[in-house]
Structure prediction request, 626 residues.
Amino acid sequence: MNSWVSGSFKNDWILILLLGCEFLKGGLLKLIQCSLLVGCALCIFSSALFAQTADTTPIPSSLDIAPLVHHSNRSQSAKRLRVNRFIIDGLVERERYGITLGRLQALIKSKQSVLGYPLTVSEIHHIADHLTRFYHAVGFPFSRVIVPEQEVVDNTIRLQVIEAVIASVDIRGESLYGRGQLQSPFSSIIGKVTNSFNIESLLRHVNSFPGLQTFGYFSKGAKPGETRINLKVQQEESWQLLTKVDNYGTDTTGENRGLVSLTLNNPLGFADQLSVGVLQSFDSKEGDQNTTYGSLSYRTPLFHSALSLGLLASNNQFDIGRDFSDLGLEGEASIARVDMRYQWAKSRTLNSTLAVYGDSKTSDVKSGLTTDILDKDETSDGVGLLLTLNYRGTGSSIQQQFLIDVYAGHYEKEFGEDAFINGEGGSNLLDDTFTKAQLRYRFQWDWLWLSSQLEWSVRGQYSDVALPSMEQISVSGPFAVRALETGFYSADNGVLSSFQWRLMNPGWLGDNVVSRAISKAIVPFVFYDVALFQRNELTRDESQINGSQAGEAGSVLVMDEELTASGFGFGFDFNVKLSSTLSVFGRVTVARTNKVEQRITETNAVNTTIDPAQQRSVYGEFNVRF
Prediction:
């Protein structure tokens, strides 16, 4: 406009010069004619100038901003509008995520109080953007609130909510899983407006498929208002082979063990998994092969990716050697288990499963003696309910794991004909029912500022009756009090707690290539274990065995006793990834006890044959995974 105005003034000066020339010529008539021409020209120029400056409506900065038209006081309302009310069209209330009419109106008022009164067109669009950001924050990234083209009536502005629906799921890359398998978890949300947290949970279900790792992202659909989910296959394994060597076995059946395990992912095309394992123990001192263990497990989804069925069968054939080798003891132990597991929560912060299971455990021990006095058969059958929780808040350095297992069972014990458990020969049968509960809790705190990790774990078991050995809890071994040898002691009730401090990337190694490689591969730690265990008293009911009177007292087979143990030590984990498919990892721990006390509860007598200073152990395992 400025350039146009300057041009008009130039034309005025030209006319003035023409007038001057005519005046000098002395032509009065011509002077009058020119004056009339000047007047007409000025009128034309003034009209043109007014036409250019009369409309002061600001030009929208974005083509997305729709025009607003007000009926009264047009020139003033074009700058600012007095808005008394906002109407939100297309709103679907979703109380679970806080999307309600009242909440959106409150957000509008809070934003309006900041912007002030009245509002410009741009500020009205800022309010719509504020609501859009709220939708995004609660998990609807493709929903938006716009200001549609409208006429402002009664100082009322209408806003429009536009929600995008999930139109399709596209698979990018080849996979051992079919497209239908990968798309099936999302079938329930196709054609619906879905929260991104629910979509993330479904993505986690897909990534829980055996041997599969995918990456998910969104894109616009083929039509307006549609969203596409894209799954890109990043990594997959059709099989895994694990070899392992450790010394986690017992002294009587072979401390040193070798394991080979093969896992097949999606073998039947159901997103299932099949695992086969064989373990062999061997005695490094005597060269005897004492234990052969085989296992077969299978898991497959049922009707839904979150619901699965699991089957397990194992068999353990063992010889009892060392101090008992002259007795010729050998046996066989078997386990059969079936479970139904439902994963009812799987998100970035919370993972949780609920399982119902049933199992059967059998143990048959025979001796090489001419008498069957040492022969014993045990059977334990039962059902259980298992709940697991794994929680870590968003951005939190604390992770918590919780497990509770309630189990009810029935067991039987049958001894050889020559056994004198009842005071006389013959077949001896002891049977009973029992209920036990297990509880586990693990607290892990990452101290990033100290490049370390603090961990506290506690687990316990409770039963009000004496349990068979296969149902008891062990106080010793690499996963209990690590200073005690495997098989040292087991009980019906017990509480075991462990404190562990892991040193992540220790700075004392220096800051060079070699030290950085070592710090990534090796993680040292120190620990302290403490346990309190109790065996319930086991008595024999004489009235049932000998036909005695109901009031006759039973004899005690197992005394009510307690064991207190604690120990400390150090160790390190190592993990070296040699390639994308080959890794070597394991653990070494060294520990000793500072207290071991076995006490008879009734008499308070202490077993003095246990020397805490002699209880030391070194555990180690070495794994190669292909």
Q: What stands out?
A: The first strand starts at residue 68 and ends at 70. The first helix runs from residue 2 to 25. The chain is about 20% helix and 45% strand. The radius of gyration is 41 Å.
